[in-house]
Amino acid sequence: MFDGVDLWGLLSGLGIFLFGMMTLEDALQKLSTNSFRQFLRRSTNNAFSSVFSGIITTAIVQSSSMVSLMVLAFVGAGMIPLYNAIGVVIGANLGTTFTGWIVTTLGFKMHLSALAIPTVGIGCLLAVSSDKEKRLNQIGLTFLGFGLLLFGLDLMKTSIESVAENLNIELLRGWHPITYLLAGALFTAIIQSSSASMMITLSALNAGIIDLPSCAALIIGADLGTTSTTALGALKGSITKKQVAMSHVLFNLVVDLLAFILLLPLLPRIMGWLDITDPLYSLVAFHSLFNFLGILLFLPLLQRFSRYLEHLFVDDDEVRKYIQNVPTDTIPEALLAVEKEVCRLFIQSSEINLRNLKINVQQLTIPTSLKQDIESAFDSALKYQERYNRLKTLEGELVEYASTLQQGSLSKGDGNRLLLLLQSARSAVYAAKNLKDIRDDLASFRHPDRTGLSDYLNNLLGIEQHFYQHILTLYQDVEHIDKEDIRDLYDSLRKMHDAFSHLLYQESREKGISELDSSTLLNVNRELLSSNRQMIESLRLLKRSTKNLGHMS
């Protein structure tokens, strides 16, 4: 029954096709990463634009994996919210169907041998005539990848035609559509390429081996099977990676099941409505159609869908929020992730210090959103020492991440920015350490038996409330503060602490304050001033990481 079947030709064609696709994706990624990264940043302001950008970028670069990796870096760095990232991912699902349209037009309506070999030859000439890092080399690899893709498709097409000549076609007919669905899902999960599944299915349809409805069921299965790549990659990934991967899995699962149950039985009628008679175009049109309808179904629900995923995957033990989601080879996003993580650390240090001083954040005249950030900086169940330990752990994670980042190709400017951010984090941790050292002293001053010291304690707490009121106001608009703002805060702070010391010197004998209590109050005043200075320094360095403010004397 299988005599004469060119199995090796089919496998060779599949291998060349996959290698050509990989070469094409790699070359396009190096050619267009920066431009498409900027395009995705600008075009993910809302759900609709996110979906549209996912469609366009994937249709152009022909790699939904590349687009997904970029989006994962963006959402990990806090550049776009999760629901917009999901929009890009489901848009990429439709964008990747353009491969079928291109190959159907070029691969089955034209003679590939007349196009593939010259394309490979031109690509090889361009690639070997320039250095690997040059743009011309990547252009050559783009031609090479596209030529190999066409050459592999030609081999698969020819091999499938030989199968049609030697195989009893009746053996492949009469199976239930769910059999084709499962076969498409399994095959795609094994070879990790929905594009290759589409090409083989188109070849089988073109050769008359499988009819159109069966091929449509295979493609629905392939669409489902392609989620295995994302799911496997997220098994040991970060929370954000799991959320994005699950969005891909759930979207494909829902859309593919609806397509199988509702649209597949109506396939002949749908193609009649669209006035498409060619079976090859009918198949790729069906593939695009059910993905498009899936987008229309999910688009109004993106925010609810993202909130569900955020509650589905939670890791209370994770001290990081951004850096674990962004690979260090995407330097712009990695630096932004570090900056956002340092900002978190600054807020966490503020929360710990306010808690230590027993100052209620609601007493501060700052924006409500900032109050909420401070109050949610830690899990409410965590005790003070646990919060402090998490603060130090986060700094350690930042240092480790920065060390890996520095091993890459950082520019001098990026290296300086990274150093400023790490120094900002160090200062914020020092600020918390200063207050931790006087924690017992503050508690002793609040003891009912030491009412004579309450006025001095309240004086210090008034200074601290004034300080955090001002520094958090500056932090809220950190990009627009200048040297004078920081210097004014520092000068007013120093005057208030100096005034407290002078007051204590004058009244210590008059009110009969013991030498031990006087010394302790002076020490507490000094540690508070030191902590405040470190917070100011942290803010100054954070500001300098974006615009150089110069050194404060």
- Given the structure, what is the number of helices? 23
The overall pLDDT, averaged over residues, is 81
The parts where pLDDT drops under 50 for at least 5 residues are 548-553
Number of strands: 0
Principal-axis shape equals: elongated
- Helix-and-strand structural type: mainly alpha
Main sheet: strands, sense, barrel: none
Terminal Cα span = 89 Å
3D architecture notes:
The chain is an all-alpha fold. Helices cover 76% and strands 0% of the residues. It contains 23 helices and no strands. It has helices at residues 7-42, 47-61, 64-76, 82-95, 98-107, 113-128, 135-166, 177-191, 194-207, 212-225, 227-234, 239-263, 267-273, 279-298, 302-312, 331-357, 368-375, 384-406, 412-437, 439-445, 454-476, 483-510, 515-544. The longest helix has 36 residues, at 7-42. The relative contact order is 0.08. Mean pLDDT is 81; it is low at 548-553.
